[in-house]
Amino acid sequence: MVSACAILGALLYRLAGGSLLRETTVLFLFIPDATGLGPDSPVRVDGIDVGKVISVSLSGSSEPNRVVKVMLSVARERLRDIPMDSFSQISADNVVGDQFVDITSGRSGEHIRPGGEIAYKEQAELLKTLDIAQFESQLRILDGVLRDIEAGRGLVGQFVIGQDMYDGLTRQMGDILRGIRAAARTVTPTGQALYSDRLHRDIFNTLAGFDKALAALQAGQDPGGRFLRDPAEYDSLRQAAADLRRSIAGWRESELVNSDGLYTDWNGRIASLIQAVDELNAGPALGASQVYDSLNGAAKELSESLRDLRSDPQKFLRIKVF
User: Fold this and answer.
1) Are 101 and 124 in contact (CB under 8 A)?
2) Number of H helices, E strands in the chain
3) In the chain, where are the structural domains located?
4) d(CA 156, CA 145)
5) Torsion angle (degrees, nearest 10) of CA 56, 62, 63, 67
6) pLDDT tens for residues 195-244?
7) Strands 119-120 and 42-45: what pairing?
8) How many alpha carbons lie under 13 Å from residue 92 in its C-beta half-sphere?
9) To the nearest whole percent, how much of the chain has pLDDT over 70?
10) DSSP three-state, residue 242
11) Contact (CB, 8 A) for 32 and 64
12) Distance of CA 321 to the CA centre of its chain
């Protein structure tokens, strides 16, 4: 007997949706009419069932939006999910389905109290909110698009009706497939690079040669390596540079560059040579003036060169030592 009562109680609890032992409270709602709404209609908050309709009756009010009074039974623990600024509407799951009270929660920090009233917000009718002219314009645009597709105009129409675009896409896909097959063949350069070790061997041989050259350089097995590891090559090069610098310094300090006596002696010899040339030209052996003019010009150029060397010896020394 006890088992049968327990089973009956569990069955009734399940049939009641698990709300037999749950504490409930009453809320009120005033609406213009109750078409499709009756007792036991669901009450939902943001799509979640929180209770049901207890009764639907006339309110006796003359206000158009408060003609019908709806009494709701809501779980007390669900009141925290219904802020004070929440509002309700009468909705349906589908076109022919039964209606229910749809509560949209607000943002207020205070929730509704037991026995409180939930504000009602009438849903906008589709025909009242629909701009007929704009809707008709959109329909015309859609009709034009469909006509173009049916006539094969435009890219979409050509693809749906025509054959050229389809054939072009087919050819392009064929070209791509042939390219992939060609790349996969080992007889082509790309295929050899992808499926053979030739590219790997080329890179490996290049790196191996570079590593070998570095090893030889580090071991001092070639002129570059000997220059890096043996200081004798570097010291010899420095010694050669120092000798060259000393030779240039000695030339700049020589008697030819700095002595007036040597310059005077050379100048006198040149003057004597000019005089000898004049005497030779005045003699009977040379009757023409061309030889005289040539020798005289050469002597003058030599004299001017010696004078420039004496005044600016660096003009004739252009050697640069690194």
Assistant:
1) no
2) 12, 7
3) 25-122, 132-162, 238-316
4) 9
5) 10
6) 666 767 778 788 888 788 777 767 766 666 666 666 776 777 778 888 88
7) unpaired
8) 11
9) 63
10) helix
11) yes
12) 53
**Is the pTM for the entire model greater than 0.85?**
no
Distance CA(49)–CA(72), nearest Å, equals 12
For 73, phi then psi, to 5°, come to -110, 115
Give me 123's structure tokens: 């849903």
CB burial class (10 A; 0-12, 13-18, 19+) of residue 83?
A: middle
Residue 54 has pLDDT above 90, yes or no: yes
Structure tokens at 230: 């043996």
93 class by beta-carbon count within 10 Å (0-12 exposed, 13-18 middle, 19+ buried): exposed
- Average pLDDT of every residue of the chain: 76
The number of beta carbons lying within 10 Å of the beta carbon of residue 78 is 19
Spell out the residues 6+ positions from residue 44 whose beta carbon is closer than 8 angstroms to its own: 50, 100, 101, 102, 103
36 bridge partner residues: none
For residue 86, the model assigns a pLDDT of 93
Degrees (nearest 5) of the Cα angle 69, 72, 76? 145
Q: Which of 275, 265, 253 is nearest to 306 (CA)?
A: 265
pLDDT, tens only, 139-194: 888 888 888 777 777 777 666 666 676 777 788 888 888 777 776 666 666 666 66
Res 82 pLDDT > 80: yes
* Residue of higher predicted confidence among 269 and 107: 107
- Phi/psi at 87 (5° precision): -140, 160
For residue 5, the one-letter residue type is C
